[in-house]
Design a protein that fits this description.
9 helices; 16 strands
Length: 317
């Protein structure tokens, strides 16, 4: 079969022949139609992601859309290594396949599943978001962050605050449900004043896609301005701005901040798959918007380097 293959850590995937899989007990063969590039796919391909198997060569891609041998159209996740989703065929355990609603097209399903699940699972499984609560999305101008704003509103958030560096993208988020935007381009003192104002008014949940300096400012501001004893559930999802931050112990001692992460390992796999299923079935009723661009899998070498955070690249296979 044809597949996008990484032969060594750090290499761009190449379109070549790979051994066609034979299903093991408990697996289905999925005949793949679409698969998307995501941050976790890139990170695993480079060998840098904490869930990487570092087994080379392997087929890239952790999820996609296709059909089972009986014709059912499914979203699937985490095929058996060394196979991945960016191939003609993928061997996938039965319990990692989700039957798709008829109204959801293959490209949108492949594009939205991973970035949308990141916030859906964080809200439902980790933060336990309640209707009427206030949410702050740190790093809301990327694909996952934009979906996090829309999904927060769909799940009943009373107020959504969005942060980001791209001021044009922040303005566009107002149409998607952001009640207030905070540009991260301000100097640190001004930025922390803006954060303090929001925490003084009450922020219940923070979803953080950036980490780094903005997370430092958020946590410090929350500790200083948040009401005594008022819980703030801070969920760390991504680390685009840096993998480590200095965190004074006083930030946690002097506040009711609960600091947690959301991702593979923090939530059991079956519940992550269930969260993805809920997201996919809500995508059309919720009117969730995601920008996409498509390419043939044979173009993977060129498309890989051109992928960006504004439009999700989806390979047609």
């Amino acid at each position: 079969m044809k597949a996008a293959i990484v032969r060594e850590a750090g290499q761009t995937p190449v379109y070549e022949d790979f051994e066609t899989p034979v299903p093991s007990t408990g697996e289905s063969l999925v005949f793949v139609s679409t698969a998307a590039i995501s941050q976790v796919v890139k990170s695993r391909a480079s060998g840098a992601h904490y869930s990487s198997a570092n087994q080379f060569p392997f087929v890239v891609g952790i999820d996609g859309v296709g059909r089972l041998e009986d014709g059912r159209r499914v979203y699937f996740v985490l095929p058996r290594a060394p196979y991945g989703s960016m191939a003609d065929v993928a061997p996938v355990p039965f319990d990692r396949c989700v039957v798709l609603p008829d109204e959801l097209d293959d490209v949108t399903a492949a594009a939205i599943a991973n970035p949308g699940m990141s916030s859906w699972a964080a809200y439902q499984e980790r933060a336990k978001l309640k209707p009427g609560e206030t949410v702050l999305v740190n790093g809301a101008t990327g694909t996952a962050g934009r979906l996090a704003v829309q999904i927060a509103k769909y799940l009943g958030a009373g107020k959504v605050i969005a942060t980001g560096r791209n001021t044009d993208s922040l303005t566009a988020l107002e149409r998607l449900g952001a009640d207030l935007t905070i540009p991260l381009t301000q100097d640190r003192s001004t930025l922390e004043d803006a954060f303090k104002e929001q925490f003084a008014g009450g922020v219940d949940v923070v979803l953080d896609y950036l980490w780094g300096e903005s997370a430092e400012s958020l946590l410090t501001s929350a500790a200083k301005a948040g009401k005594d004893g008022a819980p703030i559930r801070y969920v760390q999802i991504g680390a685009i701005s840096g993998s480590d931050i200095p965190l004074p112990g006083a930030v946690l001692r002097s506040s009711a901040i609960t600091l947690m992460g959301s991702g593979i390992g923090s939530i059991p796999l079956d519940r992550l798959i269930n969260a993805t299923s809920e997201l996919l079935h809500a995508t059309v009723p919720g009117g969730f918007e995601i920008a996409t661009k498509t390419a043939s899998l044979s173009e993977v070498e060129d498309a890989w380097s051109l992928d960006d955070s504004n439009r999700r690249t989806v390979f047609k296979i």
